[in-house]
């Protein structure tokens, strides 16, 4: 398969994963320094989130993407403040991973695997990749790796959340951000390559008939 690019190169999930974990670090740091104060955690998360937003805007990122990131941190902090439980700062992350696992699994079942949708959009193919039975099969099998990624996070987060272990949740958030995303990209790329027949022209050149 003449395809030099990997999924890591195409999708580059490092920045998003790191950006998503830093406000959690700020929340835990503020919570600890403030004597387990949720307000202290909120201020810490806000400082990190605003710092990331300013940095991204100065580097030419789209304001919409930056605002979505700020909104996510604001909602997480508001949930913790309204409920009076610091661990609820991570509740949005739990729901997000559960919803993502379900969405990816459903996409495979209905033969619109999200890995193909995302890579196809990045490569400007729209839906042409679906006309290639080999690519459709490869993306479907590769998408199961992403389902497992979200299930792994839930398996780690749920016990920590149930026990109210705020600091451990922060550590898990960092440990299961870029390292897990990098592993997911690597393994799903391996799965795709294993499921494309010899001589296939690669992700950029779908072949085959209408699906």
TrEMBL record:
Superkingdom as given in the UniProt entry: Bacteria
InterPro entries: UCP010219 (IPR016566)
A Pfam family per the record: DUF3159
Keyword Plastid belongs to the record: no
Keyword annotations from UniProtKB, A to Z: Membrane, Transmembrane, Transmembrane helix
Transmembrane segments: 38-57, 64-81, 101-123, 144-169, 175-192
Keyword Transmembrane helix among record annotations: yes
Full protein name: DUF3159 domain-containing protein
Organism: Actinoplanes aureus
Organism ancestry: Bacteria, Bacillati, Actinomycetota, Actinomycetes, Micromonosporales
